[in-house]
Predict the structure of Hydrolase.
Amino acid sequence: MTYRPIAVSLTAITLILGGQAALAEAPSTVHATYRAASADQALAPGEKIADLFTLNMTAPYILQKLTDRTYWYQAGFYGTTWYVGDEGVLLFDPLDGQAPKILEAVRKVTDKPITAVVYSHDHADHIGGTQALFDLLAGQQPVPEIIASQETADKMERLGSTLPRPDRTVAWPEGSFTFEGLTVELHGFAHAAHTEDHSAWLLVGERVLHAPDLLNADQPPFWDFAGSERFTYLQDNLRQADALGWDYLNGGHGNVGSHDDIAFHLTFIDDLVAAVGTAMGEVPWGFGVDPATLTAHTAMLPAWYAEISRRATEALRPKYGTYYGFDAATPPNAEMVAEYLFSYR
């Protein structure tokens, strides 16, 4: 399922309309040090890109150097990663609708051909630009090889995907491949929250982890925990990724990530679970539904969850309310947690 998150605020409206006024960016969830985006100067581990929301709203794309060979890209709040080898470029996730901009950004740092493309997982918003990219590279030799996990390849087959299929697969849930001497490890989430082929790809020598939709760095969890199909295994997925050897995380959205971002998410989730649990004990079944006008019992569960979500959100507001996207994201996340707590005891 494709989703396109857009942060709607007075800042966004002002920028869209071409006005001059702008609100301050939200505070960092991890007390980060910010630096201006640069394709030439690498970030130190833990540093983040300054004014990222404003850049997403005003710039064609943001390009940031992470290491001597690895780059971080974002446009329209969607991001990806590439590695420049001696002979070619390894590109992760040709984002839907962004092939021309991605190619332009790659060309800012190298004229080497894109020789391999990795699918992180089978969601079209992250890999839907593959054919458009290949069209732009028509005539290039060699033709880029598409690499994906076996689980992603199997899922594309099951669903009859119209996107270009992988040429090579990596064993699921743990496997690896080599690109010009760089080892790239697949760490699949055998029990995944986001989608069944969700995974983290570790560029071992670069200490960079590419794991779209695991978390939005420097933000509270995004809507439905980054579009996850379930909440059930999310904490385990975060801990699994945290245990790997990396300094930089590209979560596909949000800022450049660090281990502190995972710690923040785990703390936030613990607080949210506690707040939802408290609200579930306070809100009686049938809250918000008038029995005199009830024509179907199906109105009762949504009304119950909605009040639980509202109370849990307000309980977290003093601690988290000033952070990026809190009001839009927390209520649906609270409903997912309520469904989890209601289902598993």
User: Anything to note?
Assistant: The two ends are 29 Å apart (CA to CA).
